[in-house]
Amino acid sequence: MPHYVVGHKIPDSDSICSAIALSYLKTTLGEETVPARLGELSPETLFILDKFGFEQPELKMSYAGESLYIVDHSERTQGPDDIDEATILGIIDHHKLGDITTSTPLECWIRPVGCTNTIIKMMYDFHNVEIPKNIAGAMMCAILSDTVIFKSPTCTTADIKCVEALAEIAGIDDPETLGMEMFKVKSAVEGTPVRDLVLRDFKDFDMNGNLVGIGQLEVIDLAIFDDIKADLEADIAKLKAEGNRHTVLLLLTDIMKEGSEMLVVSDSADITERAYGKATSEGKVWLDGVLSRKKQVVPPLQEAFA
């Protein structure tokens, strides 16, 4: 019976490309492993898979009795609902350490870098395994996505060096131009249902017993939201009520202006003032320089809930 590699619910490009890259590495090392996913894929991720000739990983929601590797998170709220009934073989991640626990020893690769695929590149190097051209291309794109083409404060020298090395393997002469193509795909929102946009890159967090949902839409021009912003605001209010959440935040991130407008629905009217030192006005607040949910949004919010 093969093992599985799976990322978080509502998977992003890093989660999916990590599953593909790690499953190949483990299988090459003699441990039959297959990639899986916990949800539908975003247009950006579909673009990456199509460009490098990959099928979508298997959609698998239940893992009771299975053995699996977790990538791109270590949070119980973001993993399979029956994770307690599975055997976790390892965690490979670049976020804060979450609340997943195990009853047996496991392999852990957790590094403060901009992307899980950067860590997986280190794993390939450690095991001296050659990366196939198409996997290198997908890994490179995931790093460009997670680091916002090196603009994110989470980006490290290791991420940049990995993109350079992976681009050479994949035969990509100008990775940053490819990165802009990806963000143009990500910026295409016309005709997409509002709920699909809200959940395109959405994660739930347990913050001191409070369920907090944080979504993010990264685009090259916030003007594309002008006609639908009121609909987005209404939908995050519905999402909050449906999920019994304390707070729902939606980051509308402009990668060119390097900042985010945050839409806020919360049981605490002063939540952004306590977390970020800026009060909301009509349920919105502009956060200059904020690009990273992981590094700039979640940590101060957790402190506000402490």
TrEMBL record:
The lineage of its organism: Bacteria, Pseudomonadati, Pseudomonadota, Gammaproteobacteria, Alteromonadales. Its cofactor is Mn(2+). Keywords: Hydrolase, Manganese, Metal-binding. Its EC number is 3.6.1.1. It catalyses: diphosphate + H2O = 2 phosphate + H(+). GO terms for molecular function: inorganic diphosphate phosphatase activity; metal ion binding. This is inorganic diphosphatase. Residues 179-305 form the DHHA2 domain. It is an enzyme of class 3 (hydrolase). It comes from the Bacteria. It comes from Litorilituus sediminis. Pfam families: DHH (PF01368), DHHA2 (PF02833). GO terms for cellular component: cytoplasm. InterPro entries: DDH_dom, DHH_sf, DHHA2, DHHA2_dom_sf.
